[in-house]
Amino acid sequence: MQAMGQLSTHVLDTAHGCPAAGMQVTLQRLDGAGAQTLRQVTLNADGRADAPLLDAQTMAAGRYRLLFEVAAYFRARGLALPEPPFIEVVQVDFGIADAAARYHVPLLVGPWSYSTYRGS
Question: 20 to 30 A Cα–Cα from 60, which one of 34, 90, 100, 112?
């Protein structure tokens, strides 16, 4: 049985030790003409989108970008950030080579650092 293609994300707030509930995330497809916004979501209580960012019907090989609104999220949590903040938006550019595969892009983030990887 072949895997169903899917793109998902999960954000953990390392400053508070919890999922980044309420963070805004934008998915874009990159091509020669620039970036085309495909979806904008607000992460749920578990720090995830309520549905895959791309599902089996919308998955396609290509270059993509996720934009995580980090400063706005931490300000909404009541954290005092400098102006300008050290990290305003985390931009993760990545490629999907196999549209039938599962791609998961987790983000561990605080006001001063972040880390990402291809998850499962």
Answer: 90
Domain ranges of the chain: 6-114
CATH class for the region spanning 6-114 = mainly beta
DSSP 67-78: EE-HHHHHHHTT
Q: Give this prediction's pTM.
A: 0.95
